[in-house]
Every structure is written in C-alpha cells, then in structure tokens.
Amino acid sequence: MKRIPEKTQILLARMVVCGFVSGALCILMHELGHGIVALASGARITRFSLIRGFVSTSGGHKGYLIRQLFYAAGFLLPSLSAAVYALLFRRGESPMYRIFSALYETVCAAALLDWIVTPFLWLLRQAPPGDDCTMFLDFYPHHPLTVSAAVTALAVLLIYLAVRRGIFSDFMETIRNHLDKDG
User: Fold this and answer.
1) From start to end of the chain, where are the E strands?
2) pLDDT: is 19 or 179 the higher one?
3) What was the pLDDT predicted at 183?
4) pLDDT value of residue 26
C-alpha cells in the first residue's frame, strides 16, 4: 500500500482544520444575523447554539418587516462578512490563511444555495417547513423566484469578488506548491 507523502498529509490536515473553522464561522455569522435583528427589535435572546445552529428569542417587535429581516439576516450577515473578508484579503500570506480564505468564501457562497433552490420548491409546495427561506416566502408579497434571482446575483457577486481579489488563485498556488513538493 502506497504511503501518502508527508506534505500531502499536512495539506489535508490544514484543509480539514480550515474547513471546520470556516464552516463554524459561517454558522456563527448566520445565527448572529438572526440575533442582531432580534436584539434590534427589542427581543431578548433566550438560547444561542452554534453547535445545533439556532437562536431562540422572546418578546420584541415582530411586525412584517422585522420578521422578514430576521429570516433574511441568516444569509445576509455571512454574505456581508464574506464580502468584507474578500476586500481585506492579502495575497501571498501563509498556506493556512490561503486555504481558510478560499474555504470561507466558498462556504458562505454555497450557503446561499438554500435561498436559490427553496423558492422553486415553495412553488411546488415542497419547501422544507421551518426553513428560514420557507418562513420568509410564507410572508413575501412578490413572486418567489425574485428571491432566487436576487440571491443568485449575490452569490455570483461574492464569487466574482473572491476571484478578483485572488483568493482562489492563491489557494490553487498553495495546492500546486504542495503537489510539486510531493512529486
């Protein structure tokens, strides 16, 4: 049985650690988005769980706009954090930084898939109950596919920004450097 070269093992370990951290950070931003809107509406946060991925609140103003913003904030804050991160990105830093940067941008963009797909499912009456997007669409006065279109544009913008800032090319250079050293 062929042994995996040490440099490849290091690369894989870095990718696992960065994948875990970027996923946890995206979940944290998601739940913080809900929490910030809840607090701004006068609600009190009764439970916050990063591990189970939820925030429970009580009280506060729960009008139409606040309710819609509460559900949407779960994807808006991670998207905003990914955009700001991309704008602050510095090329050529350490391999961990490069790997984390690419994975964080990818995880935040991929998290938008729910808001792209769920409106189609909602039209077919197959949307997942209790999902943020489903709850948003239950009170959304416009055609659901406008949500898909807007969020698709946001996802494309995030990916474009990451590409323009060199996040993915730095990541690929890191991968190539590791593979060249192993070969």
Assistant:
1) 44-49, 54-58
2) 19
3) 52
4) 96
Contact 55, 28 (CB under 8 A): no
Q: Containing H/E element for 37?
A: helix 6-40
**CA-CA distances (angstroms) from residue 120 to 50, 52, 97, 99, 111?**
28, 26, 37, 33, 16
Burial 59-97 (b: 16+ CB within 10 A, else e): ebeeeeebbbbbbbbbbbbbbebbbebbeebeeeeebeb
Instruction: For residues 133 and 135, give the distance between their C-alpha atoms in angstroms, rounded to a whole number.
Output: 5
In the chain, pLDDT over 90 holds for what percent of residues?
79
Q: Above 80 in pLDDT, residue 67? A: yes
Q: How many CA atoms lie less than 13 Å away from 175 in the CB half-sphere?
A: 12
What three-state secondary structure class fits 47?
strand
Which amino acid, one-letter code, is at 89?
A: F
The amino acid occupying position 140 is Y
CA dihedral (13, 19, 25, 72) in degrees, to 10, reads: 180
The pTM is what?
Answer: 0.90
- Say which residues have a Cβ less than 8 Å from residue 4's Cβ, sequence separation at least 6: 12
For residue 25, give every residue at least 6 positions away whose Cβ sits within 8 Å of its Cβ, in sequence order, or none.
Answer: 81, 104
Stronger pLDDT, 112 or 59, i.e. the higher one: 112
